[in-house]
Amino acid sequence: MPNIDTTALSQELLSAYNSGAMIATPPSARDPPFGMNAAYEVEAEFTRLRKAAGRTVTGLKVGYASKAMWRLLKLETLVWAHMYDDTVHYANGTLAELTLPPHRSPKIEPEIVFKLREPIGTAGLDAEAVLRYIEWLAVAFEIIDCPFPDWQFKPVDFVAAFGLHRCLVVGEALQFEPEMIPTLAENLTNFKVKVSKDGQFVEEGSGKNSLRSPALCLAELAGAVLRHPGATPLTTGYLVSTGTLTAGHPIARGEIWQVEVDGLPVSNLTLSLT
């Protein structure tokens, strides 16, 4: 069986990323068969190419943060991809503005983001234990974009296409003291978010939608990365975006999106798309 040319595939995906071109046949539909290890090799090569172009890795984003999805798609754990200094943006307080490039059909997802105070080199942490590694958390919007027609792809395609990540807009950071951790761990399971577009309600979500808690999602990611050959463990200063709290929704220029948070002491976030 011929080997997959992961270098050529990563260059193909990078070209599509930069140009907005579509990729008619996803890697999973090609010959030879394309597995998860090859997908992460493609994603790692994409990271190398971006670093060679002067970009800096700022952290990881998560995909498939749902055990129901794992069963359906025959996954053993969640998946991840890198984020970069030119894909992570910070709000001015509770307000942010983002210029959408002319990409295919971007979608928006509300997420919880953590910034690591120190590396996580341990698997099997509970919610309280993993929060002791955290400097701050915030609500965010991730913008995703799919290079495959009609948003049809498999988990290996998701990984190879760097998690469909286009950018992350991070809201106001919540700094917290150690004595707040037990309450915060509980709140991260029970909090709700309400997403609206141009003042009209779109969807309500919950912390439970991110692997029962964004903190537990972070702990699962730390363990999965440690088990994966060649992956870099979660390190000091990394941002981790812990998976969407609602469905992804199509977006367009001129819209104003807001996520309101109930049950977690973080600020709301309003994003204007230009």
Let me know the average pLDDT: 95
Rounded Rg? 18 Å
| Strand residue percentage | 25-35%
The secondary-structure element order is HHEHEEEEHEHEEHEEHEEEE
The CATH architecture: Alpha-Beta Complex
The CATH class is Alpha Beta
Structural class: alpha+beta
The helical percent reads 25-40%
Number of helices: 7
Write the CATH fold name: Fumarylacetoacetate hydrolase, domain 2
Assign the CATH superfamily: Fumarylacetoacetase-like, C-terminal domain
Number of strands: 14
Q: Main beta sheet: strand number and arrangement?
A: 9 strands, mixed
Distance between the termini: 48 Å
Backbone shape: globular
Number of domains: 1
Low-confidence stretches: none
Task: Present the secondary structure layout.
Blueprint: H1 6-19, H2 36-52, E1 57-63, H3 67-73, E2 79-84, E3 88-90, E4 95-98, E5 107-116, H4 127-131, E6 134-144, H5 155-160, E7 165-170, E8 174-175, H6 181-190, E9 192-197, E10 200-206, H7 214-227, E11 239-241, E12 249-250, E13 256-262, E14 269-273
Parallel strand pairs: 1-11, 3-7, 4-14
Antiparallel strand pairs: 1-2, 5-6, 5-11, 5-12, 6-7, 6-8, 9-10, 9-13, 13-14
